[in-house]
Amino acid sequence: MKIVTRISELPHDVGTSVGLVPTMGGFHDGHLQLMKTARAERDLVVVSLFVNPTQFGPSEDFERYPRDRDKDAALAKKVGVDILFAPEVGEIYPRPGTTVHVPVVSTHWEGASRPGHFAGVATVVCKLFNIVRPEVAYFGLKDLQQCLVISRMVEDLNIPVRVSLQPTVREADGLALSSRNVYLTEEERQLGPLIFQQLTACKQLLHSSILTHDQIDEALKQSKVKLEDAGFRVDYFELIELATAHSTRSTSMPTALIAAAQLGKTRLIDNILL
User: Fold this and answer.
1) 15 & 103 share domain
2) 100 and 77: one domain?
3) Same domain, 209 and 143
4) What is the pLDDT of residues 250-274, one digit of tens each?
5) CA-wise closest residue to 50 among 33, 63, 35, 69
6) pLDDT tens-digit profile of 155-168?
7) pTM of the model
8) Once rounded to an integer, what is the mean pLDDT over residues 77-100?
9) Which of 21, 88, 83 is nearest to 51 (CA)?
10) Cα separation of 156 and 51, whole Å?
11) Could you give the percent of the chain with pLDDT greater than 70?
């Protein structure tokens, strides 16, 4: 595996099928599964490792975000990655420049709670697509709204990349894998799976019978209350339509249950497709 820090060092026009896995490091089994899928499907696998400052708010955890390039590099090499692209901030952002705003799907939820977050995500991913020029880019559905934003950006801007969305990888008890899970205390780690348990219970209820809008409202409210009673500070627990990422009370279209909650100092997000 080759570690590359400069854009000029990346191979171009190599005549092979290129797969890109964009990451911010802190590799876990979710990242590694994306890399394995890319390895099975593409001739050349590039993993970007870049903690993107433009998607962090002023009070967020940019400075303490998990960073261990040597460990990440060893894991990437083990699963067969060809190139680890690990640039410095100045290589990606040599000056203040153009940003990408994706409307509609970025407005609510994480977009509302973290102003500017999705503009930072869309901008860096667009840059990575132009830098690496992959045929396929791989993302995990744990960050569902991010997946919707990137998919919409690719469609709207006619970017010649196929976005491959892969299932959320979970611990045995249901906790969605995330680099930020390392922040959880032992007690918080035991509580973490409650988010997925409430998402699953709510999904089962929605599938068990035809509910009125008021009944769906009540089911969502009760799930939120149960999490708050357990010690979470719930930002949102909602049913959304996938086309717009906006709230809905209808399950006649593709939808998902989404949740975000603070547990101690750690923000956890999860979702489940209906």
Assistant:
1) yes
2) yes
3) no
4) 888 999 999 999 999 999 999 999 9
5) 69
6) 999 999 999 999 99
7) 0.95
8) 97
9) 88
10) 26
11) 100
Tell me the pLDDT tens digit for each residue of 200-250: 999 999 988 888 999 999 999 999 999 999 999 999 999 999 999 999 998
Check whether residue 183 and residue 147 sit in a common domain. Answer: no
Residue type present at position 191: L
| Whether residue 127 sits in one domain with residue 212 | no
> Using CA atoms, how far apart are residues 4 and 24, in angstroms rounded to an integer?
15
The predicted pLDDT at position 215 comes to: 93
Q: Single out the catalytic residue among 31, 101, 108, 246.
A: 31
Q: Give residue 12's pLDDT.
A: 80
Rounded CA-CA distance 93/26 in Å is: 22
| 124 and 210 in a common domain | no
Per-residue model confidence (pLDDT) at position 165: 98
The verdict on 108 and 212 lying in the same domain is no
Q: How far apart are CA 102 and CA 224, in angstroms?
A: 29
Q: What is the largest CA-CA distance in the chain?
A: 58
Active site residue 108: no
Instruction: Please state, in angstroms and rounded to a whole number, the distance separating the CA atoms of residues 166 and 176.
Output: 13
On whether both 16 and 113 belong to a single domain, the answer is yes
Q: Which of 133, 166, 199 is the last residue of a domain?
A: 166
The 3-state secondary structure of 104-132 reads CCCCCCHHHHCCCHHHHHHHHHHHHHHHH
When divided into structural domains, the chain yields a total of 2
Give residue for tokens 């547990």. 263
Nearest CA to 220 out of 238, 203, 245 is that of 238
| Cβ-contact 260, 191 below 8 angstroms | no
CA distance 206 to 216: 7
Check residue 59 and give its pLDDT.
77
